Sequence to fold (133 residues):
Amino acid sequence: MIKTFKDLREVDFIYGKLLEEKGFELTKLAYAFKRFGDLNSKKLFAEFNEELNDTRIDLALEDPTTKAVLYSADHKSYQYSKESLKKLPKSLKAIEDKWDAKEIEVTSFFCKELGDIVFTQAEEETLKGCIIE
Fold:
């Protein structure tokens, strides 16, 4: 079945939301979500995040003498010039849009035992062909 990268991100979001429920990680449905992610999205998410991070680094300020990337005082983010800071959201959005439109042939991992989980119609549509038959 063909799904978009955006669909895979939505499947991952639904899984994350369900993991917040106590005991969910021990269910067959949780196992199906994990296997589906391992088979289809794990590598893609890593590539996507790498491209986002590369863009952040490319736009970050660097020390003129050592060419080292400059970090903020708390070492949690890069430092940016005013111009780069204006470009950053647009660049990240362009990458996100490009990836979201990608079509991917997914390997389904169906779970017939949903337990007492009730999905919204939108969630059900997203999960069809992935986790739900």
Remarks:
- The chain is about 55% helix and 5% strand.
- The longest strand covers residues 2-4.
- Residues 31 and 51 are 29 Å apart (CA to CA).
